[in-house]
What does this fold into?
Amino acid sequence: MSTVAATFQGNNEPETLSWLNRLALLTPLSLVLFIIRTDVAWQFFKSGLTKISEVHWWFIFPTFDIGSGALFMFEENYHVPFFEAETAAQIASHVELVIPVFLFIGLGTRIAAFIMFGFNLVAVISYFHGLWPTGLIDHFIWAVFFLILLASGPGTWSLDKWVVSMFSKR
It folds into this structure.
């Protein structure tokens, strides 16, 4: 018997549950996953917007011009391994502006969460000295959110779920 079912039997009456426990029991997992997806997508998308100065379109694919402030930060503060500052800034802006859109709509969520987990890890490694202590906590929370999305998927409020349901009907 699950612990939730055991709570409603015997000496523990439902009214003895705290309001937070009752809320947790009533909140669907899909809502929680949607909030997680929306939060991390918005945080990284905002960060990506600070890095660009202009957007160009090649058919349906965006390309971004990196702002001088962002390029300066990559040259002086962010020490991204294996890449020169301009290349790292280009990669970072594209990852932060494209992948969060997939997270938000819930399309390819596990792949997007994996990419963002790795991106988050590189950000912590390359700018650890500037993150300590409060920024490091944010990155840790985002890493946990990405791991939750990797483990459980996007939930029912996602395009992944819709795509799977469309193909499973055939």
Notes: Residues 28-168 form one domain. The chain has a mean pLDDT of 87. Strands lie at 52-58, 61-66. The chain has nine helices and two strands.
